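Example record for the data management plan.
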Amino acid sequence: MKTEKALARLASNHLDDAALAELYRNDKVKIDGIITQWFGKGTIATDALSRVLVRIAENAVHFRPQFQKSEDFIVGHAVQECQRLYSEANTRIALAHFSRG
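Corresponding structural encoding:
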């Protein structure tokens, strides 16, 4: 199935595992590349991947193929989620650091 079809299925049901798996299979290189830029490789990156895929699935309802490419939609949401996760991690580290003193 093409990415556009997977996004359409996710727009109808963001819990459609088959559509999400197909979307990831089609765009694995892009998604993994973004996650690696933010988190490297390992357990943190694995956790980030699941959160990025959830964000894409939940926001598929906003995808409009007549106005944007599926690649731009996926990359945009992957970057936004990685930024959010990175910021959240930094905030937790700072709070832990300052609460010690």
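Summary line stored alongside the record: The mean pLDDT is 93.
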